[in-house]
Amino acid sequence: MPLPPQLVAIWRRGVDTFGTADDGRLFFTEQGRVLGYSGYRKTWRDARVLALPPDLVASPLAARAYDLRHSALSTWLNAGVDPTEVAERAGNTVETLLRTYAKCLYGRQAVANGRIGKLLEEYE
Predict the structure, then answer these.
(1) 45 by DSSP, 3-state: which?
(2) How far apart are CA 93 and CA 1, in angstroms?
(3) 117 band by pLDDT with thresholds 50, 70 and 90
(4) Torsion of CA 63, 80, 3, 92, to 10 degrees
(5) Alpha-carbon 6 to chain mean position
(6) What does the alpha-carbon distance between residue 7 and residue 12 come to, in Å, rounded to a whole number?
(7) Element (H or E) spanning 55, and its range?
(8) Which of 37, 64, 66, 124 has the smallest number of CB atoms closer than 10 Å to its CB?
(9) How far apart are CA 84 and CA 89, in angstroms?
(10) pLDDT at 105 over 70
(11) Which residues face 28 on adjacent strands?
């Protein structure tokens, strides 16, 4: 999947800082073994507490690491990327993309209202 330069830079810093497992995996235990589900879940839970304000920690926002996929695809759609392109990058059909991933992101209501307002002003 293509990554924007900003994410590539973050990825590279992580690899430079932490390296990879002997088999090339990015996420591994201190002993270099496969990181299990419970390890991912605990790390994600701890990261949410550090990254989000308390009211959002208590919300379902980004409750699971998999929610990043939803967030990424929704962000691309909200940015105006053609749904066909987003679906192709995600390995989904457009139908699945729109049914499963086309969600509003936190704080995007103001952006949507601004766009709707601007359109309505054209009719005045």
Answers:
(1) helix
(2) 15
(3) very high
(4) 70
(5) 14
(6) 9
(7) helix 54-57
(8) 124
(9) 9
(10) no
(11) 34
- Most confident stretch, 27-31, 35-39, 86-90: 86-90
Q: How many residues does the chain have?
A: 124
Distance CA 76, CA 85 (A): 9
Instruction: Burial-class residue 101 by CB neighbours within 10 Å (0-12, 13-18, 19+).
Output: buried
pLDDT in tens, 50-73: 999 999 999 888 899 888 888 889
Amino acid at 78: N
Query: Is the dihedral angle over the CA atoms 27, 29, 35, 41 positive or is it negative?
Result: negative
Specify the pTM.
Answer: 0.59
Domains of the chain: which residue ranges?
A: 66-124
